[in-house]
Task: structure prediction
Amino acid sequence: MGKSSAFVAFINVDGGIMFKVFVGRDETRALRGDQLKRFQSLADSLASAKAA
Result:
């Protein structure tokens, strides 16, 4: 089974993915904790903005 990943995808008007920005990995190939924490904070703030 593959490793978990986290990314932000930028979608064009046709619904296709233009590009993705991934959370980086450390030397052991684990997701970088500092980036993952910021990624989750961004996801939370976008979810609360959408709910408002």
